[in-house]
Amino acid sequence: MNQAPYSVQGDVAVITMSSPPVNGLGLGLRRGIVEGMNQALADPAIRAIVLTGAGKAFSGGADIREFNTPQASAEPSLGTVIDLIEGATKPVIAAVHSVAMGGGLELALGCHFRVASPGAQIALPEVKLGVLPGAGGTQRLPRVVPFTMALNMIVSGQAVPSEKFKGTRLFDAIIEGDLLGGAVTFARQALAEGRGLPRVRDLKVDFPMAEPFLQFARNTVATVARNYPAPRKCVEAVAASVTMSFDEGIRFEHQCFMELVETPESKALRHVFFGERAASKIPDVPDSTPVRPIASAAVIGAGTMGGGIAMNFANAGIAVKMLEVRQDALDRGLAVIRRNYESSAKKGRIKPEDVERRMGLITPTLSYDEIGSADIVVEAVFEDMPVKEAVFRKLDEVMKPGAILASNTSTLDVNQIAAFTRRPQDVIGTHFFSPANVMRLLEIVRGEHTGKDVLATTLQLARRIGKLGVVSGVCDGFIGNRMIEQYSRQAAYLLEEGASPQQVDRAVEKWGFAMGPFRMADLAGNDVGWYIRKRRYLERPDMLYPKVADKVCELGRFGQKTGAGYYRYEAGKRDAIPDPVIDQLITDHRAELGITARRITDDEIIHRLVFALVNEGARILEEGIALRASDIDMIYLTGYGFPVHRGGPMLYADICGLYNVVNRMKGFAALGHGDTDFWTPAPLLARLAAEGKGFNG
Ligand code: NAD
Predict the structure, then answer these.
(1) 3-class secondary structure per residue, 440-458
(2) Strand partners, 285
């Protein structure tokens, strides 16, 4: 099918880009434009050409489905298409509406004239994928809009509505109403007025104060975007529009683009872009799977998690009942929610009237009789199987047929929970992260009998409440916490061998994590891990745990909530203050083990912790608990503060090279401390490393 249908209106040809959903400039469309241009140029009856887009966009830019395929760079490239248009012997008018982004805007900039509907979103968003506009955008945009505006748009990637460009050379006219008719009229007028074939490349950038402004931009970018090279390169490429000729500038832009595409940061950002989209694709649950309507919800438990989960529903306009066993617990839960909303309103994050509106959507109750009609119920009671059993047996009794029964358990067996009901197909795990009203991750646990429609509905609901849903199979800890356990074990070994909590945290945070392991443990509560370890000591006597963490707990140092953990905390403050008590505890512990402390580098700290995640991630992938490596990465980026510019543990391992990862692990094993089995590469990791492959292909 021709993706750029050609039509004629008297002496004006119209080429309409038609590649849903957003007229992405894939190979088929690029070829279609060239064919349309050839036809128009060869026809003596045609005096001008209008280029526009069908449906919801002029063009959204590159076709993301083509990314990482040979088609992306196959000729005619976008640069070739733009050169053909710019060099045409008949005027080409871009008729821009709705969206002109990235390559779409660059294409319009190659035209002789541009007209636009008001309200069109205009952007060069390439920086968000760690690259820069690679088809002339950095050279042409500063020639048609104020230099500072062009630089801001290119460095930030933000969209600007078309009417804001009034008075600039980007648009020759803003057309209200019939855009195509207006563009054809404009074309005839331009011919009648003898306006010729103006090319953006021939314009000069008019900004005498460029250098001081560029210096200011370089400084700003260096602090705001310190982990990313693309914004810096954007500044340099835009600078070239002032300091170089157009052709030199284009060559420089291309060189910058090629350098950026290969950076780990760009790989990471593209990985996130695709990984987030891939997460909702479940191989045996097609997009056509019917979903259950969700108009109302219930939450069991008004504690830390229950309250936050109820807020998610209320924020999305979904009425929610919140059930507790005792009135005081209910009152406390509601008070916390109200405080949260009031503080958001004070900070201007929500409107003052939203506080009452959202509170009004949350109905407290002590009675199961009142929740039976909810479309979904999320259980968030104590992490204790007998308590969960009682709740699920009750839910099975009272909930209407077809209601989804979800558990927020972080470690318990969702299949066992489902078996407490006579409707295991309706049971699913929805593992929210704390604070549940803030954290974007929702780990969705698919039980053995979970219905496909229940899974599809939950994934859709995740989007509705602003979460990224990632599916996990059933196992202890699911994807995220199963991996973090190995990371925490390794962190504790580092203390035994010579590091201090603050050294470990500092190294990890410098590398880009939101929080190091010990500050994180103090925040989450050290008793949570202690409780899990006590269970492990019985279930997995073969698995060695460093005992230093237990000793911290034995002192009652559960973290921020008790005013002390690996650090000490002053009342009402969250600053982690190093504590000599902990230094002494660690020193005594080493003496007991007969260990002489050694100096441990930051590099060793980072790689022992991250490769601990990677090795367990490989097992999770091989067991099919995670569907794809990118799902693991999305969980770590959205739920565990893993640095986004590194793309998640699995992509980081791929970028290091799995052979190198395995080799490094051998070195860690040779250190001879702790559980030496720890560093036996997972079979999948060993196999992929031997084959020279990566987790992500
Ligand atoms: P919490 O102790 O803060 O709250 C639990 C609430 O449940 C309490 O208010 C309690 O009164 C109520 N409750 C207990 N039994 C009940 C029953 N039979 N019926 C109704 N209400 C009952 O605990 P939490 O931290 O909110 O954890 C709840 C669940 O969420 C647990 O399964 C936990 O593993 C999981 N989870 C917690 C976190 C976290 O960081 N806190 C993160 C993810 C998942």
Answers:
(1) CEEEEECCCCCCHHHHHHH
(2) 282
Q: What is the pLDDT of residues 438-490, one digit of tens each?
A: 999 999 999 999 999 999 999 999 999 999 999 999 999 999 999 999 999 99
| pLDDT mean over 194-202 | 98
Higher pLDDT, 431 or 207: 431
Q: Is the CB of 329 under 6 A from ligand 1?
A: yes
- How far CA 369 is from CA of 18, 373, 374, 563, in Å, comes to 54, 9, 11, 41
d(CA 210, CA 436): 47
Residue 206 has what pLDDT?
83
To the nearest 10°, the Cα dihedral for 148, 153, 158, 160? 80
Cα 498 to Cα 596: distance, rounded to the nearest angstrom: 8
Tokens 């050169």, residue?
Answer: 83
Fold exhibited by the domain 6-261: 2-enoyl-CoA Hydratase; Chain A, domain 1 (3.90.226)
Cα 621 to ligand 1 centre (Å): 29
Largest interatomic CA distance in the chain: 94
CATH of domain 296-472: 3.40.50.720
Q: Is the CB of 324 under 6 A from ligand 1?
A: yes
Alpha carbon 109 to chain centroid, angstroms: 30
**Residue ID of nearest Cα to ligand 1 atom 14:** 381
Please tell me if the CB atom of residue 412 comes closer than 6 angstroms to any atom of ligand 1: no
Q: Supply the residues annotated as catalytic.
A: 106, 126
Domain boundaries in the chain? 6-261, 296-472, 480-691
How far is 434 from 639, CA to CA, in rounded Å?
9
Q: How confident is the model at residue 67 (pLDDT cuts 50, 70, 90)?
A: confident
- Is the pTM value of this prediction over 0.90? yes
Burial class (CB in 10 A: 0-12, 13-18, 19+), 339: exposed
Class of domain 480-691: mainly alpha
Is the beta carbon of 629 within 6 A of some atom in ligand 1?
A: no
309 lines ligand 1 (CB under 6 A): no
| Closest ligand 1 atom to 432 CA | 43
529's tokens: 């891990």
Ligand 1: centre distance to CA 494 (Å): 32
Question: Is there an atom of ligand 1 within 6 Å of 149 CB?
Answer: no
What is the average pLDDT across 574-582? 96
Pocket test residue of 382, 384, 397, 438 for ligand 1, highest count of atoms within 8 A of CB? 382
> What are the tens digits of pLDDT across the range 107-123?
999 999 999 999 999 99
Cα 630 to middle of ligand 1, angstroms: 30
- Three-state DSSP string of 522-537: HHHCHHHHHHHHHHHH
Instruction: Please give the single-letter amino acid code of residue 412.
Output: L
C-alpha dihedral sign at 217, 219, 224, 225: positive
Nearest CA to ligand 1 atom 12: 301
Give first-to-last CA distance, the chain, whole Å.
Answer: 32
Atom of ligand 1 nearest to the CA of 306: 26
Omega before residue 578 within 30° of 0, cis: no
Distance (Å, whole) CA 12 – CA 29: 20
Kind and range of the H or E run holding 342: helix 327-346
107, 25 in Cβ contact below 8 A?
A: yes
Contact status, residue 316 vs residue 294, Cβ threshold 8 Å: no
Cα–Cα distance, 567 to 580 (Å, whole number): 9
